[in-house]
Every structure is written in C-alpha cells, then in structure tokens.
Amino acid sequence: MENAPLQKIRLLSPGSPNRATAIVGGEASGIVNWNDIRYPQFYDIYKILLKNFWIPDEIPMTKDVKEWGTLTPAEQEAYLRTIGLLSNLDSVQTRFILETSLFVSDPSVHAILSIIAQQEAVHNQSYSYVLSSIVSLDQQNKTFTRAHSDPAVIRRNQFIVDLYEGFRNEQTALALAKSLVGSLILEGLNFYSGFAFFYNLARNQKMLGTSTMISYIQRDEMQHGYFVAMLLRAILTERPELDENGEFTEFARKTIGMAVELESDWTREVLKGIPGIDLEEMLGYVKYLANKRISMLGLPDLYPGYTENVMPWIRAYSDENINNIKTDFFEQKARAYSKVTDDNGFDEL
Ligand code: ZN
Ligand code: ZN
Fold first, then answer.
1. Domain 41-348 has CATH 3.30.310.180
2. What is the pLDDT of residues 120-161, one digit of tens each?
3. Is the Cβ–Cβ distance between 255 and 293 less than 8 Å?
4. 127 among known catalytic residues
5. Separation of 148 CA from ligand 1 center, angstroms?
6. Which of 46, 127, 199, 285 is catalytic?
7. HSE-up of 205 (CA within 13 Å, CB side)?
8. pTM value?
9. Of the ligands numbered here, which is closest to the C-alpha atom of 185?
10. CB 76 within 8 A of CB 169
11. pLDDT tens across 229-250, in order?
12. What confidence tier does 2 reach under pLDDT thresholds 50, 70, 90?
C-alpha cells in the first residue's frame, strides 16, 4: 500500500465529505470548513502562522548600512555566504511546499501549506532587501549565485534536494514521509547556524536590523518545523504500515544524523574565525537541535547528553523565548509576538 502512487488532488470533489478521510490518499470535497476538519489542532497552527505576518521592508536598515563597513572581512564574508545559503534553502522550500500540497487530500493541510509557502517567499524577499541595503547590485547577484559553486553548501543542500526529488519522482506516501524528514531538517536544523551568526553580531550591537529580520524568519521556521513534525506523525499514525518493522524510524534517525554531519562541516567552514563564536559550542548546539527535532517525532535523543542549549545567548533572541524578546533591544516599534507553545495538541496525536 505504501507504494501505491498518490493522486494529484482534484480542485473540487462534490459528493465527498468536507472533513478529509485521510491526510493523503483520502477523500475530501476540497472545501475548507475549519469547524469540520480532521485534526482540530491544525486550526490553531493556521492562526499562529497568520499572526506571524511581517513585511521585510518595514525593518529599518539605516544603522546596518553604517555598520557594514565596521565588520571584519571574515564577518562580511560569513554574512554574505550565510545569506546566500539561506536564500537557497528558502527558494527550494517555497517550491517543495507548493508541489507537495498538490498531493495532500486534507484541505486544511493544503491551506496551511499555502501559508507556509507564502512565508518562504517573504523570507526570500527579505534576503534581497537586506542585501540591496548594504552592497552593490553586482555583489547582490554574486551572493545569490555563489551558493551554486560553494562545495560545502552544495553538499548540504543537495542532501535535502535529493529527498525532495525522491517525492517528485515517485509520489507515494513513503516518499512523502521521507521528504518530510528532509523538510524537518531544513526548517529545524539547517537554518540555525546561520541564524546564530547573526545573533552573535547582534549581541555585539552590530547589524540589529538584519538580526531582527532573522528573528522573524526563525519564528516562522520554528512554526513550520513544528507543523511538519505534526504532519509527519499524523501520516505515520494513519499509515502504520510505513513503519511496520521500524524501517522508517531507522531512516529518520540516520537521515537526521547525516544532516548533523553536513551542518557541522558547513559550520566549521563558514563560522571559522568569527569573533565571539566558539566552534565547539556551535557543533554542540547543532546536536542539541537534532535532539529537539527528533523528539518532535516521538523518538529518543540521537546525541545523549546534548539536552541543553550550550549557547544560552541565542535564547535571548530566538527559540522558545522568542515571545519574550524585548522590543527595545531591536529598537523597533513594538510587535505582537505570538507564542510558540505546546498547547496546540501536538502531543495528542
Ligand atoms: Zn523560510
Ligand atoms: Zn520554513
């Protein structure tokens, strides 16, 4: 059954129920009635995603423009490389989410994926926006294309793209589940060394506009990762045959472990020599994140002992405490942060 191809959803299927009979491969009319959905907790996710709305060019960059010239050459280099990498991840994710949603029978999931894809498009806009503020058009263009020839970035991105292409080539529930592990890695692990680089600048009072933007992106990505994990768990619950002998669990553990290796390689290369960044701590942070992500799938830690964030300063700007960010730190107008919590029923799945 796990090898039966999923059908591309029909725009409307009159006669089928509004509440989908399954997330994938089920029947549904195509109409979203939020009061009659398969997983009521998905409505909470949808509302949180909407509340997170933000517009990149509302973030003032004038101070960043002045400070750019005060960064060390290593910091400038890491800044541009990291933006180039993030733009690649977000471009891929916009397309993956849109394409995947065409094979999801549950219309409430389709609606949530639409919002996630929209947010990924905004993330891409934000990278263009910050770069256009601080460097020439020529350098902007180079930044967006250099990731294509950067071996550490290629290895890291190709790993995710291969998982995604696996589903594009063969639209089965199993391939979808595997690609969602890739998506959990992209949303929940691959962005974070890059984020940490910008928070490190921020704690040294540098490039606060950029780090404000990054904190909004991170808030979105955490929510996306959270939803991807929920979705994956729901699919595995609906289709227990996908993990009949624990193969899928083994696949998830191996894949996340491999992602940690690739992330560590990239981190060692790009963040080497950045004042304030301790590489060993960063690598521990990556393992800590991997543990958090795998626990969202209900699986035990991959790296025993990595249970605490060893770089607590990151928490001041992100992660669970994002709703506690002091707005005066960023010298921005106050924004209503919505809270990322466990109270949306995730554990009930
Ligand atoms: Zn994104
Ligand atoms: Zn995302």
1. no
2. 999 999 999 999 999 999 999 999 998 888 888 888 889 999
3. no
4. yes
5. 18
6. 127
7. 1
8. 0.89
9. 2
10. no
11. 999 999 999 999 999 999 999 9
12. low
